[in-house]
Write a structure and sequence with these properties.
This protein is mainly alpha-helical. Helices cover 76% and strands 0% of the residues. The two termini are 17 Å apart.
């Protein structure tokens, strides 16, 4: 049975997958708070990059390398937590990851060396990524494929507030305190996650569903996942689409604040508008999944993103930095908002047929996203062209490939037969 919507579930039976019309909404929203530590850590300090660069005596572009440094931690951390959570359950990894996150946040808050900051950011990500891995796997433990798509939409409603509010919150901190205060706040949020884990996160993976294959076989199990067509097309395709957003995150400060001269406060508002579009479409996705096939919604969202990225690429080619800013922002908005239709559904399809390796599947899917983010950041540096064109090239290339893979998903895939 599902938990009532008004309360958190009382130690749900992991073997009992919810099949009623109701979802454990309070439990899912609590998971959203846990996973929100990721977008908060990425987005909250973005308005501070220019002032951090000034303090460390480097350029904003150099300081922006702390973003891909964070992505590196996300890639490798998720690959560890996935099989670990499949073996020992979902609770222990959360304690380990969140404790590491709090320690790393304190390192970032107290350092006066840019390279120590980069290391601290990587350690921060190694801790934070446990939330995304474990919450996706826990949802897969309890829910069916269609309910999983809806659950991801609900969870994004909560965690989606982070990228909407984070840049503005960071800008507010900068008005009254130094950039160090942002990392102290993140350390406190990590402590909140430890408390949520202690009092409200109950084990969802039963002993009989745990993966007991030897740890030395982890690489071969990941390889088996990559060869599975029920996983690889939606996971890699969705990863490319989501990874393109991280290209934007890596370059947003340079584009909006340096190139177009926006203030930190206005940057926060503009960044929040994109995140609001993303969250809005995830909520629309809940309604759409009751009326259309998940795969059809996924394909529509992918087309919306690639067309918008193509328009941005065109603006960069024709006008460069003389492109009208509202038009540039509109293209970026639809690229990011379209994720609300692609990410919940791509994730649901990728995890639908995974059972004993749901944690590994969740981890590999997340690692693919951030690997694309790292690659996209490097791709940006390869083109000595104007910032608008650089972002347009990277986002259009990644989204085109992602859309192609989405269209390769078997149209006859029967998600109702997923275990």
């Amino acid at each position: 049975m599902s938990a009532p919507k008004s309360s958190l579930p009382n130690k749900p039976n992991a073997a009992d997958r919810v099949r009623s019309a109701d979802l454990p909404v309070a439990w899912i929203m609590m998971l959203g708070l846990i996973v929100a530590v990721g977008p908060l850590s990425i987005d909250m300090y973005l308005p501070a990059l220019p002032s951090m660069a000034e303090d460390f005596g480097v350029s904003t572009a150099f300081m922006a390398n702390s973003v891909p440094a964070y992505f590196v931690g996300l890639v490798f951390g998720q690959l560890f937590y996935g099989p670990f959570s499949d073996r020992v359950g979902r609770v222990k990894p959360l304690y380990i990851g969140m404790t590491l996150y709090v320690i790393a946040s304190i390192i970032c808050a107290t350092t006066d060396n840019e390279y120590v900051l980069f290391v601290g950011r990587t350690l921060q990500a190694l801790g934070a990524c446990v939330g995304a891995v474990v919450t996706r796997a826990a949802i897969r433990d309890r829910l069916t494929a269609k309910q999983t798509a809806k659950a991801f939409s609900i969870m994004i409603l909560v965690m989606g507030l982070a990228p909407i509010l984070a840049p503005s919150l960071g800008a507010i901190f900068l008005q009254f305190f130094s950039w160090h205060s942002i990392f102290w706040f993140l350390a406190a949020f990590g402590t909140l996650n430890l408390l949520l884990t202690k009092f409200f996160f109950f084990e969802t993976l039963t002993e009989e569903n745990r993966n007991i294959r030897p740890a030395k076989e982890v690489l071969s199990q990941y390889w088996d996942l990559l060869k599975d067509p029920t996983f690889n097309y939606p996971a890699i395709g969705g990863g490319l689409l989501m990874g393109a957003m991280f290209v934007y995150i890596s370059s947003a400060s340079e584009l909006i604040m340096d190139t177009y001269g926006m203030s930190a406060t206005h940057f926060g508002w503009l960044f929040g508008m994109n995140a609001a579009g993303f969250v809005g479409l995830t909520q629309l996705n809940q309604w759409l999944t009751n009326r259309f096939r998940i795969l059809s919604i996924l394909r529509f969202g992918a087309m919306m993103q690639v067309i918008s990225a193509g328009a941005l690429f065109g603006l960069g080619v024709v006008f460069g930095t003389d492109a009208w800013l509202p038009l540039v922002l509109a293209c970026i908005f639809f690229c990011i908002a379209g994720l609300g239709l692609t990410q919940p559904n791509a994730s649901a399809i990728a995890l639908a047929f995974q059972k004993r390796r749901a944690g590994m599947a969740s981890a590999l899917q997340g690692s693919l996203m951030f690997s694309v983010g790292i690659f996209g950041g490097l791709l940006l540096n390869l083109f000595p062209v104007n910032p608008v064109l650089k972002i347009g090239i990277a986002m259009f290339a990644l989204m085109s490939l992602g859309t192609y893979l989405i269209w390769q998903i078997d149209r006859n895939l029967n998600l109702d037969n997923a275990e």
